[in-house]
Amino acid sequence: MKRSSEAPDHTVLKQAAYWYAQLQGDADAVLRAEWQSWYAQHDSHRRAWQYVERIGTRFSPLQDDRDTAQHTLSAARQLKHSRRKVLLGLAMFGSGALLARLGWAPAQQSLLAWRADQRTAVGEIRSLSLEDGTRLWLNSSSALNIAYTAQRRVLRLIQGEVLIETARDSRPFLVETAQGSLQPLGTRFSIGQQADQTRLDVFEGQVAIRLGDQSEVATVVPAGRQRRFDAAQLNTEEAASNGRQSWSRGILQADERPLGDVITELARHHHGHIGVAPEIADLRVMGTFPLNDLQQSLSMLQSVLPIRIERPLPWWISLEARR
């Protein structure tokens, strides 16, 4: 998954997770002073700590230690944070608690996604048959709007990923994302909507891509090919493996896929954080892994790759190089 250049790296996130774990018990003044020193060293430490706190709050929304990160800030900022935390705590009993029961990650609770015609929770894969016979499969944490009229058929992918098998119909079929529109020509394909780009994999037929509002300029992608694009440009064409659609059957089929890519796909089906050390992210993976059984998938990976798995917290997993 693409991350901002301002985001803390794997090592700093790992440090933050271990500090978080140590501070959950009866931490003495010496330990807290050491943590405060680490926290104040760099902006990346503060961002990493805030990231860990956000995830921890999903699993323990009433945890009293959430405000410990503010010990290094001014009293005024402490007061502001405390007031915000009270409001957040109240919200957790209402809509936040409901969203947790539904399985939505807070980072994905955008209004558009929440109000979408079709949406899936973390770990859910849903299949649909539309009125024209078109078949859809929605991946974990995905949201989609459906707009069929007498003139055309339009899907709007708000977040996540959808696999589509189109049916014959006289009306044109379009899929819209934040970066452009796609028009399939009797085909089977998948579309993934990420923060700043769209990924298209074509398995049968072909699909025409139009970037942004450039409705007159189309790039046709044939079967067996993949393209990524943003609103301004297309990336280099690559091969589209049939394994890219295996998630619709509840499995992850890897054929020489990078470990980082495999973990990104597994992570989207589970709550919490799963990180990969950069030095092992490019290890090649082959095999078939169950998406609904993270422990089994990680054990399978650990048995064939030179990696070890660390769990500093129940909801934090870190894959490291084997020593």
TrEMBL record:
Residues 119-207 form the FecR protein domain. One of its GO terms (molecular function) is sigma factor antagonist activity. Keywords: Membrane, Transmembrane, Transmembrane helix. Residues 14-55 form the FecR N-terminal domain. The chain crosses the membrane at residues 86-104. The keyword Transmembrane helix applies. It comes from the Bacteria. This is Transmembrane sensor. It comes from Phytopseudomonas flavescens. The lineage of its organism: Bacteria, Pseudomonadati, Pseudomonadota, Gammaproteobacteria, Pseudomonadales.
